[in-house]
Design a protein that fits this description.
- By secondary structure, this protein is an alpha/beta fold.
- The protein folds into three domains: 114 residues, Rossmann fold (3-Layer(aba) Sandwich); 82 residues; 144 residues, Histidine kinase-like ATPase, C-terminal domain (Heat Shock Protein 90), CATH 3.30.565.
- Helices cover 53% and strands 18% of the residues.
- The protein has ten helices and 13 strands.
- The strands form three sheets. It has a six-stranded mixed sheet, sandwiched between helices. The chain has a five-stranded mixed sheet with strand order 9-10-11-13-12, covered by helices on one side. Strands 5-6 form a two-stranded antiparallel ribbon.
């Protein structure tokens, strides 16, 4: 059964109400309470779940008023129907046949409020409160959705940025290899020819000095290429990070150790690159700021999660340094980890060192950066 009533002397209704009620008398009492407060409203009464669902799907309402017990169903069934339609409305129970505990349970489900039928004079106030609360929650939900969308856009941008950076690094590395590397190799051949065709000790001494400088330039170009495009990753993640650790120890003089439970660990290329860049950045920061005498690194794939832990016994990081808005190192590593569905934790205490832990699920990595970009 479905009936509709319009508030007397109103040309345009401002408040659209859906009333789930099997008693015409109780419906009229609700109308009287609303009219007495001179509320501008249009009210539609239904007394079955089918009519209730049809109305919420076909029309736009501002609020639902529902008796608790109706023939063959309750207001909670109507609430479930409303939830299934994904239509959100403030929902007020009107009943004399529900206890306080049941009313509390209903509100915990998401129903806006409860009012006994013998307290209808307070109906306008309860409706206003329910609608204001609904409005506030809706605004909060929209804000949260917008924030989530913004974070998703930021994550996609970070993902795109990391891919672009790695592509540019690979391009520069190829140019160094093809252009500078080729030129240095040609210079080496020329110096070798000169050393074979001159007898002057002074000239040969200059050739030897030039050779030494050339060897230094070749080593520097190879090191730069390795930093730009870690070709050593082709040998596996553990050998690549081991090379980083050994290079760091040679340059800095800081004792550096690396252990692993799986030397043949071979995750997907995006995960390898993330772990490698994390280790590279961590060791760079340690060399600049830690003032330590020892670094310990642990690489594992226990329980299907790649874990890279890097600890030093240095001076630690202050809270001010961690919160510095211009310090992008750690934030950049966290964003890089997020790209492959991983996360980064940092613990530090002044005077007692710093520990950085990267975790990446091995069965749920994102597809980007595309491993084809780094072949």
């Amino acid at each position: 059964m479905l009936t509709a009533a319009l508030a007397p002397s109103l040309t345009h209704a401002h408040l659209a109400i859906l009333h789930l009620e099997d008693s015409e008398l109780d419906h009229q009492l609700v109308c009287r309470a609303l009219t007495k407060e001179k509320l501008p409203y249009a009210i539609t009464r239904v007394d079955s779940l089918g009519d209730f669902e049809a109305q919420v799907r076909q029309r736009s309402f501002d609020i639902v008023l529902a008796d608790y017990r109706l023939p063959g169903f309750t207001a909670l069934d109507a609430w479930a129907v409303l939830e299934s339609t994904q239509i959100r409305l403030p929902f007020v129970l009107l009943s004399g046949a529900i206890g306080e505990s049941a009313a509390v349970a209903a509100i915990q489900l998401g129903i806006s409020d409860y009012l006994p039928k013998n307290d209808l004079p307070n109906l306008p106030r309860v409706m206003a409160s329910a609608m204001e609360l609904f409005k506030a929650k809706s605004a909060e939900a929209r804000a949260m959705a917008e924030l989530a969308a913004s974070e998703q856009r930021l994550a996609l941008f970070a993902q795109h940025l990391q891919t672009a950076i790695e592509n540019e690094r690979a391009s520069i590395a190829r140019e160094i290899h093809d252009d500078i590397g080729g030129s240095l190799a040609a210079v080496r051949l020329d110096l070798s020819w000169i050393s074979r065709h001159v007898d002057s000790p002074e000239t040969l001494e200059h050739v030897k000095t030039a050779n030494d400088m050339l060897q230094h330039a070749i080593g520097a170009s190879q090191r730069i290429m390795m930093n730009l495009r870690p070709a050593i990753l082709d040998q596996g993640l553990f050998p690549a990070i081991q090379w980083l650790a050994e290079s760091f120890q040679r340059r800095s003089g800081v004792k550096t150790s690396l252990v692993t439970n799986n030397p043949s660990l071979n995750p997907e290329k995006p995960i390898q690159l993330t772990a490698y860049r994390t280790a590279q950045e961590a060791l760079t920061n340690i060399s600049k700021y830690a003032q330590c005498s020892q670094v310990k690194m642990d690489l594992s794939d226990a329980e299907g999660v790649l874990t890279l832990e890097i600890s030093d016994n240095g001076i630690g990081i202050s809270a001010e340094a961690l919160s510095n808005p211009t310090a992008f190192g750690i934030r950049g590593l966290k964003e890089r980890a997020r790209v492959v569905n991983g996360w980064l934790d940092l613990s530090t205490r002044l005077g007692q060192g710093t520990t950085l832990i990267l975790n990446i699920p091995l069965n749920g990595a994102a597809d980007s950066p595309d491993e084809a970009d780094f072949q």
